[in-house]
């Protein structure tokens, strides 16, 4: 069974209604990847809500502009 470890999460918007979660996923076969899960809610009812999940390679995650703590946690988990 795959293990999901929360790397970082963010909340934005006046009501904190736009949320992102980033997980490090270690699969039973030894492969590893990052999952980005999000939930964006239009608190004013004028647009569309959006929710979903996207799978990224560890390399893709590390190349992107993420906070230092999240990058450090991924590197720590990769060393295990």
Structure, described:
With 80 residues, the chain is an alpha+beta fold. The protein has one domain (3-78). Helices cover 21% and strands 44% of the residues. It has two helices and four strands; from the N terminus they run ββββαα. A four-stranded antiparallel β-sheet has the order 1-2-3-4. A hairpin with a 5-residue loop joins strand 2 and strand 3. The two termini are 17 Å apart.
Mean pLDDT: 93
Question: What share of the residues lie within helices?
Answer: 10-25%
> Strand arrangement, largest sheet?
1-2-3-4
User: What would you call the shape?
Assistant: elongated
How many domains in all? 1
Structural class: alpha+beta
Q: Termini distance? A: 17 Å
Could you give a quick summary of the protein structure above?
The protein is α+β, with helices and mostly antiparallel strands and 80 residues long.
List the helices and strands and how they pair.
Elements: E1 3-12, E2 18-26, E3 32-40, E4 50-56, H1 58-63, H2 68-78
Antiparallel strand pairs: 1-2, 2-3, 3-4
Main traits of this protein?
80 residues, 4-stranded antiparallel beta sheet, alpha+beta
